[in-house]
Amino acid sequence: MDKLLVTVFGLGAIGFIYWFFFGKNEEASTQTHVLVNGGYMPSTIKIPVGKSTTLMFTRTDANTCLEDFYIPDFKIKKYFPMNTPVTVTLLPPTRGTFGFHCGMNMFHGKIEVV
Amino acid sequence: MKTSFPIVGMHCASCARLIEKKLTRTPGVTAAAVNYGSEEASVEHDDTVTPKTLSDAVADVGYKAIIEGNNSKTPNDIKEEAKKAELTDLQKKVTVSAALSIMVFFGSFPEWFPFVPKILSDPMVLLFLATPVQFWAGWRFYQATWSSLKNRSAGMDTLISIGTTAAYGYSLLFLFHVTNAMYFDTGAVIITLILLGRYFEARAKAHTGDAIKKLLNLSAKTARVLRNGKELDIPIDQVRVGDTLRVRPGEKIPVDGKITDGFSSIDESMVTGESLPVDKKRGDAVIGATINTTGTFLFLATSVGGDTMLSRIVKMVAEAQSSRAPIQRLADTVSGYFVPIVLMLAVATFVLWFDIGTFAQAFTNMIAVLIIACPCALGLATPTAIMVGTGRGAEHGILIKDAESLEIANKIKVIVFDKTGTLTNGKPTVTDIETVVPGLTRDPRGSRHVSRDDILSIAASLEKGSEHSLAAAILAKAAGQKLLHVTGFKAIPGVGISGTINKKHYTFGKPKKSYHNLENQGKTVMELTQGSKTLGIIAVADTLKDQAKDMVSTLSRMGIAVWMVTGDNPRTAAAIAGQAGITNVLAGVLPDQKADKIKSLRSPGSLRPPIISFVGDGINDAPALASADVGIAMGTGTDVAIESAGITLLNTNLMSVVSAIKLSRASLSVIKQNLFWAFGYNVILIPVAMGVLYPIMGIFLNPAIAAFAMAASSISVVGNSLRLKTARI
In total, how many domains does chain A have? Predict the structure, then answer.
């Protein structure tokens, strides 16, 4: 009986983990202020093609993984000091989706150029 | 002047009006507009307004302006400070939690350590010792987990906090007689080991960015400027374009410029990697941050601040370090799914072992899975190697545009060199002076026979008025000799030049007969005649750089086919190529055909065309540099070259080409080792933690050992990347 219960709960937990992490469906945001706290909020940012857009990132999370920030396709690397806004200016020449991530590549987000 | 900058802290449109008013009233500001929506200010002002004035004005009304240069601390300084504080904090936590964990460990196994006082094994004492480790030293894991879960994402810390909390919570329930075992030691040891790992990793990681720090430290702090007839020492950021600056022996040249008076020998090794000092005179360009050795000179500042060569180099290295190497793609994809998958595997492990084994097996294996998984190593594998590799290159005057160029350069199979200025010195020099029939001709000034010196002297005197490209070579050879007075100078297109010296008429130019011996060596021969008599000849050629032969043989040994491309006729081309040991020659290629010729080497139809590199001077060769898989621009730091080339060599030493390829090979091998280690580690040890070895060998992975392995794996990846600092290139 115990075994059955643990198995059922276990399978349920796996399903929940899957839904919790992979099931989120975030809409691209046009907001240019990004809060860096346990990830990037918003994590999908929509910006216009061919126009210079300045994004502002503020890290409020002490986790050192988030202190470095990379947008490899734009060759951008920034250091985010705690509670200090840092600006990142992009001038995307083409449309497309470009990922960004933290120093250890564990927290991700993307920039949609439209 | 117009300055735009973001403002932080506005919460309504009236805040924007308030800041706008304050800025408009600031002396020197002609107009200011603050947009609440974009949170940006745009200010028109004159030269008296500095970024600091603007940020002070904004701060006066209670908001914060983000302007570069308004703070005496650079982002690097802030980062350094934060890193120092972080290291001190980690050190404190590691020390305290290590002491506590050792006691918890001893207390948890009284049967192994009979000498330990009994009181340490008391559950309440263990709780008392383990709690600070769990919630004080380990607090950062909770903070990070909470904020990432809010975002529905998870990182390394999520795994650690879930794993250790499970151990701690289960043990806590033991105190209430709900469970029948304690795992205080597991939680405490894991947290201590992981913090220890973080400490070493943070220390090692700080060194991956050393190259940029070194470059930044190269710049001079002050400059001696001539203003209103006086010499003043001023901070470097106050130097303006057009200032005249004085540099004394042993001093650092503050900014880029052009010598206006004096001469000296300058040590440029720190920027270009050129090992020998370079002689510079009036009109020559000097690079900021290089060191003046002996002379004193004045120079005109031509670029300052962010426009100097050093700033451009720093910017380029920083950009390259932020780019992505194609080899990293798989690791990137895996990282995105890693942590949630490990969480699911941990649950599956628990269920499986609960069903087929005991609760204790299920529980410890689950914790081992959570703790052993190390996405950090995957994330650090490529970027740390790229950082150290590009930095190492910059120290040798090898600028790598992006991680992709560094990666591809390792696969170069064919390398095409432009001849003039790349393989050769690019300046024709006099190689031979010969008297044709010694003893038969008379000197214009007397009865002596015509000597080699006489031929040079007459030719140089005639060439003085000529604009022919070879004239410079002859005049340079005759430097220091007194030139003779020429009357009736005439340039005859296609033939040469003529003039009268001491009443004798001379012609110098195209020879009437062929000099096969010299011409076959790629030399241009000019004949000096007096009337119908030939007096002698002068041969001029562009000479091969000293290192060319060594470089070609080294490249061949490395399995790379060497080609030469030139606009010269096949005979001259073959002569130069022969001297360098190059057998593959593309001669008679016009500058605009070079790009097509390079493409044609790709052997059309082949499934895997060879990776081709083109080495040129970067100014006329931009299309060829861009059309090659890896363009290598040599002896230049111009924007055009940097833009079109994947690799820019700041010096003119041909061996730098070999160094660049060796650096790429060394970096790639480190990246491959790192990725192999990081993938292998996770692919092998996660199943081991899940208990796959138990049925075969009866082994389970102790969670504390899992914590040790996890900490060691990311340190070893960073440590392996740091090896590139001493790699032989």
Answer: 1
> Residue B235 and residue B637: Cα distance in Å, rounded?
26
Cβ of A17 within 8 Å of Cβ of B343? The answer is: yes
Establish if A44 belongs to a structural domain. Answer: yes
| Residue A16 included in any domain | no
Is residue A2 included in any domain, yes or no? no
Helix-, strand-, coil-residue percentages of chain A, each rounded to 5: 25, 40, 35
Q: In chain B, which among 331-390 make CB contacts under 8 A with chain A?
A: 331-332, 335-340, 343-344, 347-348, 350-351, 354-355, 375-376, 378-380, 383
CATH number at residue A36: 2.60.40.420
CB A17 within 8 A of CB A51: no
Q: b/e for B352-368, b at 16 or more Cβ within 10 A?
A: bbbeeeebebbbbbbbb
| Facing A105 at nearest CB: one of B322, B323, B335 | B335
Among A64, A67, A71, A78, which would you mutate to test the B interface (most chain B Cβ atoms within 10 Å of its Cβ)? A64
CB contact under 8 A, A39 and B354: no
Go through B615-624 and write b for each residue having 16 or more CB atoms within 10 A of its CB, e for each that does not: bbbbebbbbb
Instruction: Give the per-residue pLDDT at B639.
Output: 67
CB-hemisphere CA count at 13 Å for B300?
A: 8
So what's the pLDDT on residue A111? Answer: 93
B491-509 tens-digit pLDDT? 877 778 889 998 889 999 8
Q: How far apart (Å, rounded) are the C-alpha atoms in residues A56 and B8?
A: 10
pLDDT of residue B637: 59
Name B279's bridge partners: B265
* Tokens coding B236: 């470097």
CB pair distance less than 8 Å for A63 and B144: yes
Domain enclosing residue A103, as ranges = 29-113
CA–CA dist B504, B488 (Å, integer): 11
CA B166 to chain centre: 45
Residue B607 CA to residue B275 CA, distance in Å, equals 42
What angle (nearest 5°) sits at the alpha carbon of residue B673, between those of residues B671 and B677? Answer: 115
The pLDDT score that the predictor gives to residue B441 is 46
Chain B stretch 383-442, residues whose beta carbon is closer than 8 A to a beta carbon of chain A: 383, 402-403
Name the B residues in 166-205 with CB < 8 Å from any A CB.
198, 202
Q: How many CB atoms lie within 10 A of CB B137?
A: 24
Whether A83 has its CB under 8 Å from any CB of chain B: the answer is no
B 47-106 residues inside an 8 A Cβ radius of A: 64, 66, 75-76, 78-79, 82, 86
Q: Is B300 helix (H, G, I), strand (E, B) or coil?
A: strand
List chain B residues with pLDDT less than 50.
439-443, 446-448
Give the separation between CA B686 and CA A112, rounded to whole angstroms: 35
In one letter, which amino acid is B338? Answer: F
Cβ separation A75–B319 shorter than 8 A: yes
Give a yes or no: residue A96 inside a domain: yes
Count CB atoms within 10 A of the CB of residue B306: 11
Q: One of B243, B418, B542, B621 is an active-site residue; which one? A: B418
Q: B717 touching A, CB under 8 A?
A: no
The shortest C-alpha distance from A59 to chain B (Å) reads: 11
Residue B439's pLDDT is: 46
Question: Any residues with CB less than 8 A from the CB of B113 and at least 6 apart, and which?
Answer: B106
| Contact yes or no for B508/B462 (Cβ under 8 A) | yes
Judge: A14–B86 Cβ closer than 8 Å, yes or no. Answer: no
Are the CB atoms for B598 and B627 separated by under 8 Å?
Answer: yes
Query: Catalytic annotation on B237?
Result: no
